[in-house]
Amino acid sequence: MATTTLWEEIVDALNAVNGGPHSGHRAVHAKGTVCKGTFTPTPEASKLSRAAHLQGDPVEATVRFSNASGHPGTPDADPLAGRGMAVKFHLPDGEATDIVAVPLVVFFARNAEDFLEMTRARVPDPETGQPDPEKLGAYLGAHPEAGVALQKGIPKLAPTTSFATSDYRGLHAFGLVDAEGETHWGRYTWEPEDGTEYLTDEQREAADRDYLQEEIRERLGSGIARFTLEFTLAADGDPLDDPTEEWEGEREVVELGELEVIEIVENPETPEEPLVFDPMRLTDGIEPSDDEILAARPKAYNVSIERRCAT
Ligand code: HEM
């Protein structure tokens, strides 16, 4: 008898939270807009890493902005939906490397088993349409890190005026490896050049269901959206394998480059050629940390990708 893998269970639970499965859509971040642009690294970037996209010459980038819900009909102004920004850097040798980020401050779970348990605790009760407060309360009671992540993260999920006026964080630690082979550990942040700007209550109430998708089209119709890629260097003792822990206090931040998001890509993917962003798609000069969530992500993503392409 075929057994269900942990990764299938995770995707099933994400579907259950989001009233899915929704045929042909990602299990989360179901609704999105794909754009292309250019990333230009700073001179400081090449001192930290020998990675090909950090050596000075601009590279092309593919960017997918998304509503983080797994339901493609979730309004962009939903206060808990959140957003995503996935960036693929196209390298001179034809390969690519990705950064997949969200506005959260820290992640909710330390490993895939906890993530599954928490997701199951969030599945709405068919009678009330809301998660069972007892189940969710029991999970949060046993996992204080999840409560802290929610407390810090929920305000950051509030709807912004644009995908281009939100910041996004990679949450995991990555090691940038320089030409001498020395590794510099840190975490990525995309800072919007226009700053982060949230909708007012009035704007939120008046917002169209897909206003973020529409706004980025309009914005790129007459201009460019710019982000700075920052790398917050770990201090001695900072945990490198725990995405639920904030590195609190002052840290050295290095600007790695500027991303110019220039135009919309129409029809960016087909079931035969899906567009896949993978936080473990790294390249020489970038190392993963021993973060269990980072290692888990591609396994769960593969289930979602196979299912969305099978339809
Ligand atoms: C165990 C933890 C996680 C699980 C199980 C999970 C699951 C998923 C799945 C199934 C997808 C859809 C993949 C596809 O069909 O292409 C996805 C997409 C995404 N995830 Fe996660 N995720 C996790 C953690 C994270 C974290 C920590 C971040 C941010 C730092 C993140 C950001 C995103 C973004 C931005 C997308 C959309 C990518 C795109 O536009 O194609 N996820 N996630």
Task: State the order of secondary-structure elements, H for helix, E for strand.
Answer: HEHEEEHHHEEEHHEEEH
Distance between the termini: 24 Å
Bound molecules: protoporphyrin IX containing FE
Main sheet: strands, sense, barrel: 10 strands, antiparallel
Supply Rg.
19 Å
Shape: globular
Please identify the structural class as seen in this structure: alpha+beta
Strand tally: 10
Mean pLDDT: 97
Tally the helices: what do you get? 8
Instruction: Please indicate the percent range of residues in DSSP E strands (runs of 2 or more).
Output: 15-25%
* Share of helical residues: 25-40%
Unreliable stretches covering 5 or more consecutive residues: none
For the structure shown, list the relevant keywords.
alpha+beta; ten-stranded antiparallel beta sheet; 24% strand
Quick take:
By secondary structure, the chain is an alpha+beta fold.
Description of the structure:
Strands 1, 2, 3, 4, 5, 6, 7, 8, 9 and 10 form a 10-stranded antiparallel beta sheet that branches. The chain has 311 residues and is of the alpha+beta class. The model has no long low-confidence stretch (mean pLDDT 97). It has helices at 6-17, 43-48, 112-121, 133-142, 144-157, 201-206, 211-222, 292-310; strands at residues 31-41, 59-67, 83-90, 96-101, 168-169, 174-177, 183-192, 225-233, 253-264, 286-288. β3 and β4 (96-101) form a beta hairpin. The protein is globular.
